[in-house]
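Morning. Coffee machine broken again, so started the prediction first thing and wrote up yesterday's gels while waiting. Chain of 341 residues, entered below exactly as on the submission form.
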Amino acid sequence: MTGLPAFPTCPTVDVHAHLLLPRVEEAVAGHPALAGARVLDARRNGRAALAVNGPMVRDRIPLLTDPARRLAAMDAAGIDIQLVSPSPSHYHYWADEQLARTAHELANTGTAAHCAQAPDRLYGLGLAPLQHPRLAVELLDHALDQGLLGIEISSHAPGRELSDPAYEPLWTRAEDTGAIIFLHPFGCTLDERLDRWYLSNTVGQPTENAVALSHLIFSGVLDRHPDLTLIAAHGGGYLPTHIGRSDHAWRARPDARGCAHRPSSYLGRLYFDSLVHDPYVLRELVRAAGPDRVLLGSDFPFDMGTGDPVAALRAAGLPDADFHAVRGANAAALLPLARKD
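Came back before lunch.
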């Protein structure tokens, strides 16, 4: 990477922070398919998790909706800049094309309006409906037209993995525009197997990250789109620290040779946030992906995030240059790729 600011003086940048957009939920309210989506969500998460999730989110609504409260919390945590993305609960990948367009346009304009309250400190990502691949390209352009830096996507859409050829135009458009793709799973397809003890999140989210990234790697998407800018939430899940098994399969089995190079070599083409909740795992992520490929992330302001991402990063005991790179220098070099005008 070139043009890095001096490490100690670079801003502290959190690339994993969320907001809630009430107008999106108003747009989908009452749709018959919404009830089915909620039943599926309940089945996947279990009653105990849903009973905790509701009050947890309600308690955080001011932080998720009020820019002034967000900025105060950033100041308290020593965060200079946030890359803000809608809560994944706004994906609504069940929606038909017309409703998906409406909901995701509202997500894009709402995120842009939120960030416009502090344009020097808040950068935004929009949404695009993966269930409608052609519309997703249009909504990526819509997000960029609002001054956002790219879009947030889940690990899959119903009936489609990220390796699906239908997404080739989306990857091409993102690559051509320099748009950021933020991969943040929502839900887990292991369903009732994870419906207790919040396994749907603690096990499900890292699994979904690993599966989605494996589809992108093994299918050759990253060979065809070497300049795609993709940030994986939650440290990329299980994949970066267990990539040796993927490398072994690539060497040992002809059916695992969908990509041109060993899978671990693609980690250096991706970005990963630092939210892994373990200093030793964070050190291994930095080693596996490279110190220039890990970015500070907090999952602000949800309970599965961290209120002090800088302290979590410091606990990893990285060399000073690597610490400051992850703290903000890497993001400071990345974000101008799609800088707001």
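DSSP finds 15 helices and eleven strands in the chain. Going to sketch it on the whiteboard this afternoon.
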